[in-house]
Design a protein that fits this description.
Keywords: Signal. Helix content is 62%, strand content 4%. It is mainly alpha-helical. It has a two-stranded antiparallel sheet with strand order 1-2. The chain starts with a helix and ends in a 17-residue tail after the last helix.
Length: 189
Amino acid sequence: MKRSHLFFFAMAAISPLCLRAQDKPSMPATPPADPITQSERGLYSFIVGSVVSAAQKMPEENYSFKPTPEVRSFGQLVGHVADANYMFCSMASGQANPMKNVEKTKTSKADLIAALKDAVGYCNQTYGGMTDAKGSEMVKFFNFNLSKLTLLSLNTAHTDEHYGNMVTYLRLKGIVPPTSENPPAQPPK
């Protein structure tokens, strides 16, 4: 086969790929301000949106459900996530924890969802005041010296962990978790 024919066939084969590549959004020419903080905030927003959606999907009569006697009920998980969000975000912001013991003091679905949304709002304020420079400041977390952004990452990881628990509880009750819906549920605004 002549080289010109080979070249023609090669170009014909890759041209759809080139056209498809043009459809993809390009990366911004300059990175966003505080890219580490913004990346963490995006991950946090996704998982807490999933947790809030899971809390909303579970019927109130199942808020006392425990798969086994020694674990938290679904409602206690919601309260625990709210408590942890307040703890991690207050430490990262350098403020006193404004809310404690949601897990022990709230039992109704409405009260727990309201407390969870308030905790998310509090963390969103913490993210709003955070920069990569502020996030690199060190704070004491139990026996560890950690950066403020590491605390926020721990909060995201902790929330991920308990979303996984919630998924199991939902599945055991025959409910499709938010992240398994088609299309997946979007975080609440």
